[in-house]
Design brief:
single chain, 391 residues, alpha+beta, Butyryl-Coa Dehydrogenase, subunit A, domain 1, Butyryl-CoA Dehydrogenase, subunit A, domain 2, Butyryl-CoA Dehydrogenase, subunit A, domain 3, 3 domains, 4-stranded antiparallel sheet, 3-stranded mixed sheet, 12 helices, 7 strands, 13% strand, binds flavin-adenine dinucleotide
């Protein structure tokens, strides 16, 4: 858990521009190796830390960048274009930070955010559990609180980049006698954090997220439990921010695929001047879909920012249905767009050894529908729609 010398990020607009520069200069050259070796994108994270960008969403008064979600989203699109694994790691970190900022109001958690800003800590998350699968709104493990100290043990089938994280936010039942849905979320950090690895991460895509399984054991001050019930945290912050930032990463993948397809078609046009390349019309079509994707992410960000300080609006059924729709649409569009671009570039995209290869884009994009399964999300929306009134 290294200590980093950081330059605070304070200028508005700076965050997205710096993330984009790191994407081009650091993440892009390492992306193939990160993917092939299934290794943590350490150089990209080091570069982000050196510029204070892991605290971008922390308020300025706590030592952070005070950036908007919009800026972080734009930075993630840029990073997703170059290395989707790096972008997903950074997205997952910022989702946890957003939860701490809104729902960690006690002194211990405020101090932790100051410390995070100073040392540029990286946060991981353990919501998924053996036995509940992707149903993150129920837990089997439970907190035990005695004399102001908590203890928890969780069988976590996936904790991305846990070995490189400085702390893990963990969901659990409030107490041993609580129902599965009465959950809290607790900040677990060394020296009270023990992670016993179970298995390996050898996946089709997002290989650099290193999403291995662990048995997590943690103890600590009971003040490390976030102040609101997990149900509120999930509805108001974790779910919408996750869907917005994941969608930004997937938009980055789709954007790079469209860029490559455009370059391919332009190359064809140069080779045979005066003729319209066969794939030019398909490129025009996929560009329409890509623009819809861009607009959808942007309008969803605007909707979130408009509701940001209105707890009732964030908790409303209509808002939840909309944020779930964003996730399902974005995770579907990214695969559709990459597949179309593969048809445009043909063998040059199918092969793994050309500048137009889309192998990694396709493999990464497939994971989007599984990161909380789209079937599960649609089932939640189906439930909510039974009681939704015009809002
Ligand atoms: C790259 C990546 C990184 C991840 N990182 C983390 C992390 O850091 N921390 C973490 O906690 N988790 C993480 N996850 C886990 C993720 O968020 C999901 O919870 C997990 O992928 C779900 O696993 P599952 O598909 O086995 O389970 P399930 O969601 O249970 O799905 C299994 C099957 O059951 C079906 N199903 C089950 N219940 C329902 C239902 N009610 N309605 C409809 N269909 C249902 C699904 O359609 C699917 O076919 C990560 C996942 C990925 C892909």
């Amino acid at each position: 858990m290294a200590v980093h010398q950081v330059i605070p990020v304070t200028r508005a607009g700076h965050v997205a521009a710096r993330m984009a520069a790191i994407a081009d200069e650091v993440a892009a050259p390492a992306a193939a190796d990160v993917d092939e070796s299934g290794r943590f994108p350490s150089e990209t994270l080091a570069a982000l830390k050196a510029e204070g960008l892991l605290a971008a969403l922390v308020p300025v008064e706590l030592g952070g960048g005070g950036a908007s979600l919009d800026e972080v989203s734009a930075g993630l699109v840029a990073l997703g274009r170059r290395c989707a694994s790096s972008a997903m790691v950074v997205a997952m970190h910022h989702i946890q930070v957003a939860c701490l900022v809104r729902h960690g109001r006690n002194d211990l958690l405020r101090d932790y955010l100051r410390e995070l800003s100073h040392h540029q800590y990286l946060l991981a998350s353990a919501t998924t559990e053996v036995g509940t699968g992707g149903d993150v709104r129920s837990s089997i493990c439970a907190l035990e609180v005695v004399d102001g100290r908590f203890r928890v043990q969780k069988q976590a089938p996936v904790i991305s980049y846990a070995d490189d994280a400085d702390a893990v936010l963990v969901t659990a039942r409030r107490a041993a006698d609580s129902p599965e849905s009465d959950q809290v979320i607790v900040l677990c950090r060394p020296p009270g954090l023990e992670l016993e690895q179970v298995g390996e991460w050898n996946a089709l895509g997002f290989r650099g997220t290193c999403s291995t399984g662990f048995v997590l054991r943690a103890t600590g001050d009971a003040e490390a439990v976030l102040d609101d019930p997990y149900g509120d945290i999930s509805t108001r912050t974790m779910l919408p921010v996750a869907h917005l930032l994941w969608s930004s990463v997937w938009l980055g993948i789709a954007t790079d695929a469209v860029d490559l397809a455009r370059k391919f078609v332009q190359g064809e046009a140069r080779r045979k001047p005066g003729t319209l390349p066969a794939a030019a019309l398909r490129l025009a079509e996929v560009t329409v879909v890509h623009q819809q994707f861009v607009d959808m992410v942007q309008s969803s960000l605007s909707r979130y920012e408009a509701a940001d300080s209105d707890a009732d609006r964030l908790a409303s059924i209509g808002f939840g249905v909309g944020m779930n729709a964003l996730k399902v649409s974005a995770s579907t569009l990214v695969v559709d767009i990459v597949r179309e671009c593969m048809l445009i570039c043909g063998l040059a995209a199918y092969r793994l050894d050309t500048p137009f290869s889309l192998g990694r884009h396709l493999r990464d994009s497939i994971g989007a529908a599984l990161m909380v399964n789209n079937d599960r999300i649609m089932a939640n929306n189906a439930q909510m729609l039974l009681v939704l009134r015009g809002e």
